[in-house]
Amino acid sequence: MAESFMNRAPRVFFYVQHLLGIGHIARASRIASALAKDGLDVTVVTGGLPVPGFPADGIKTVALPPVVASNAGFSGLADSDGTAAGEAFLNRRRDLLLAAFRETRPDVVIIEAFPFGRRQMRFELLPLLDAIENAAPRPKLVSSVRDILQQNRKAGRDEETVALVETHFDAILVHGDPSFVRLEDTFPLTSGIATKIRYTGMVVAPPAADPIEAFDVIASAGGGAVGMDLLRAAASAATRLPANLRWLLISGPNLPDADYAALSAETPPNASLVRFRRDFPSLLRVARVSISQAGYNTVGDLLQTDCRAILVPFVAGGETEQTVRAERLEALGLADVLTEADLTPVRVAKAVEAALMGRRANAMPIDLGGTDATAAIIRSMMG
Prior knowledge:
By secondary structure, the chain is α/β, with parallel strands linked by helices. 33% of the residues lie in helices and 17% in strands. The protein is built from eleven helices and 15 strands. The chain has helices at 23-37, 87-104, 122-134, 157-168, 228-238, 257-266, 280-286, 296-302, 321-331, 345-357, 370-380, and strands spanning 11-16, 41-46, 60-63, 67-69, 77-79, 108-112, 140-146, 171-175, 197-199, 217-220, 247-250, 271-274, 289-292, 308-311, 336-337. The chain has a seven-stranded parallel β-sheet, with helices on both faces. A six-stranded parallel β-sheet has the order 12-11-10-13-14-15, sandwiched between helices. Strands 4-5 form a two-stranded antiparallel ribbon. Helix 2 (87-104) packs parallel to helix 3 (122-134) and helix 5 (228-238) packs across helix 10.
């Protein structure tokens, strides 16, 4: 394979599907940018609603007709209008994905989350696996997964995942620090695929620039498809604390327009409401308190700051990933945790008040070098 690179850059085909939040597309985009910076020819295939800033400018992108989760439990797919995705629609997506793969002729294929997640996308990913196996030369195949997986999976799912890994995948890149959490903590059959696992450290945004303004408290809802209760409680909590505290509410790009309008009407004078801030990591550098869910990327941003974190793990549909992350951070003194049931104005105000008076613990360092480490691993796989 190395000889084929003499007259061209190695080609990477990177599939990412975000269904509800923006964490998956944000992490994949950071990896793609690092690969491109390393001289690789990267094509990112996206399958969700557009997200400002992801993938980054200059990255080749194939945008499939978007699908989203039709409910918070991720049990179905819908198109961008909220209509259930039918067979013809899904077949068209599959054909577009396979055509993009054939046109790219990659040396490495990266699939984000699958086969540990994104089971809903089997209609197009299993055909992609077959196409990879039948390609000549066959590209390397890598799974790119976050450090904490969803638990409480149905019987047989883990065995199916192991079988797919053993049959098709050359490596599993786990984007986390094994001293903080290991894959086997949330995937009990890890021992069967241990030889293919490589830990990269957390994939985080580059060091943030100096902020252009400062807020005392930032409440953010990630992608915004969920999180209205968090934002509404934060807006009301702002009225119960000193008026000289400056608040920023970030709704996320996917908060429904009606919810955004209702929240805007409830936002007090000492708070600003926006859908998206590209400079969110910079703002966290000087914020005193952050209120957010416990998603991978938000936590990665917080770990690069001294901001005190109040985490509200997302648990709808039986989700467990954010609870595991939040509780481990709380045990290290790196965050305070509220449950979704705690999202009352009084409880949020008390949590913010306590955070403003407290200091974050100096806990063990968590490896945040996953972006460059992932690029180095992918490069090394090409010989």
